[in-house]
Amino acid sequence: MTENDAVESAVAMSRLTIMSGGVEELEYFEETSVNRQPEAKMHLLQHSWTFWFDNPNGKQKQATWGTSLREVYTFYTVEQFWGLYNNVLPPSKMSANADFHCFKTGIQPKWEDPKCAHGGKWTVQLPRSGGKMLLDTYWLYTLLAMIGEQFDEGDEICGAVVSARRAQDKIAIWTTTASNENAQISIGTQWKDVLDYHEKLGYVFHDDAKRQEKNAKSRYTV
């Protein structure tokens, strides 16, 4: 597949269908095509990354969580990232209960993935009042820090997810080795600096979340 074919495929895949008392088309990408740059002018990222979208209402009808996840587009250069990002509606415009993920290519945003199975996540909860104004900024800053390798323990990072919720929006960074406390504290501390975030951050082990769901307590805080 050529790069042009991949871009066209990504734009086509972005028109995800959700069920809400009928069929509704979610135009998550704007109509303009992703900007194509000559290969020689592109700046390679250290890792290849993949965007995923979670169909919020689809999972309610599925027996297994994760079957509603859709792989959207994989990018490996700075130019590809901006070409895609500039044609994506911001998280503040996502429908309630939707999740948009950016994970290292080869890692699925699921607890069951081998790279995530023994990991956990740091979570930023946006304020209920005025949170939408910060959501887009925090998401962009998180992506840039992550794909730009600004974290000292970047090898620990699996990816990030922004979650639109009626009550309170969230952004989380998933990591691969929850028991590595020093690495997780380093990531959490640096993420707070990137966002200029002054509230407490908590880190929850995936194992705890699977067993206790919403009652899972943070093992680490910064």
UniProtKB/TrEMBL annotation:
Transmembrane segments: none annotated. One of its GO terms (molecular function) is translation initiation factor activity. One of its GO terms (cellular component) is eukaryotic translation initiation factor 4F complex. Gene3D superfamilies: RNA Cap, Translation Initiation Factor Eif4e (3.30.760.10). It comes from the Eukaryota. The keyword RNA-binding applies. Keywords: Disulfide bond, Initiation factor, Protein biosynthesis, RNA-binding, Translation regulation. One of its GO terms (biological process) is translational initiation. PANTHER family: EUKARYOTIC TRANSLATION INITIATION FACTOR 4E RELATED, EUKARYOTIC TRANSLATION INITIATION FACTOR 4E1-RELATED. Belongs to the eukaryotic initiation factor 4E family. This is eIF-4F 25 kDa subunit. It comes from Physcomitrium patens (Spreading-leaved earth moss).
